[in-house]
């Protein structure tokens, strides 16, 4: 069983996102994150992935979910980290090997007509917006979310 992180970096009403160049969810906006390395705890992995994919150094992140999906036996540790009010995001968007990294408005992410978002993100972003922590089992058919089970 692998551990992966999904990280949301929040600045005011915006969330750091990546438009992915790679499978899964190629061409869709997602949170940053990735696999936790051997000997690393999930939080350290999240902080490392945020830095690697965005250049942003955060000191801490709040765990909001430990979820699973039907792709594999991975545990998905979902974190949110809030940037200080004076943090400058004007250098974004930036292009990295994995895709384009940019800050997107929460309402844009949550809009039902936005088909360019990884489907489960709306769950986690809505939880962040309302201060909830919730675990899910996500059932996908290819890149289509077909069922959400609260755990």
Short summary:
With 151 residues, the chain is of the alpha+beta class. It has three helices and ten strands; from the N terminus they run ββββαββββααββ. The chain has one domain (3-150): Nucleoside Triphosphate Pyrophosphohydrolase, CATH 3.90.79.10.
Tell me the count of domains. Answer: 1
Q: What share of the residues lie within helices? A: 10-25%
What would the average pLDDT be, to the nearest integer? 95
- The backbone outline, from C-alpha atoms, is globular
CATH architecture: Alpha-Beta Complex
**Counted beta strands:** 10
Determine and state the CATH class. Answer: Alpha Beta
Oligomeric state as shown = single chain
Major β-sheet, in short? 10 strands, mixed
* Element string (H = helix, E = strand): EEEEHEEEEHHEE
Q: For the record, give the distance between the C-alpha atoms at the N and C termini, rounded to a whole number.
A: 18 Å
**CATH domain fold name:** Nucleoside Triphosphate Pyrophosphohydrolase
The parts where pLDDT drops under 50 for at least 5 residues are none
CATH superfamily heading: Nucleoside Triphosphate Pyrophosphohydrolase
Number of helices: 3
Beta-strand share of residues: 35-45%
Structural class: alpha+beta
Question: Key terms for this structure?
Answer:
alpha+beta; Nucleoside Triphosphate Pyrophosphohydrolase; ten-stranded mixed sheet; 3 helices; globular
Describe the protein in words:
This protein has one domain: Nucleoside Triphosphate Pyrophosphohydrolase. The chain contains three helices and ten strands; from the N terminus they run ββββαββββααββ. A hairpin with an 8-residue loop joins β2 and β3 (29-30). It has 151 residues and is α+β, with helices and mostly antiparallel strands. The protein has helices at 42-54, 106-110, 121-129; strands spanning 3-11, 14-20, 29-30, 32-35, 62-69, 75-82, 94-96, 99-105, 136-141, 144-150. Strands 1, 2, 3, 4, 5, 6, 7, 8, 9 and 10 form a ten-stranded mixed sheet that branches. The protein is globular, with a radius of gyration of 14 Å.
């Amino acid at each position: 069983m692998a551990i992966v992180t999904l990280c949301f970096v929040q600045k005011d009403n915006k969330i750091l996102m990546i438009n992915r160049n790679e499978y899964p969810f190629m061409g869709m906006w997602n949170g940053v994150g990735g696999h936790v390395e051997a000997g690393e705890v999930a939080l350290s992995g999240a902080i490392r992935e945020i830095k690697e994919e965005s250049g942003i150094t955060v000191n801490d992140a709040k765990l909001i979910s430990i979820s699973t999906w039907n792709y594999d036996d991975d545990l998905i540790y979902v974190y949110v980290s809030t940037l200080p009010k004076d943090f400058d995001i004007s250098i974004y968007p930036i292009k990295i090997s994995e895709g384009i990294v940019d800050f997107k408005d929460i309402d844009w992410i949550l809009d039902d007509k936005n088909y360019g978002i990884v489907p489960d993100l709306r769950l986690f972003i809505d939880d962040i917006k309302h201060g909830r922590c919730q675990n899910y089992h996500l059932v996908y058919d290819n890149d289509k979310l077909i069922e959400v089970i609260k755990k």
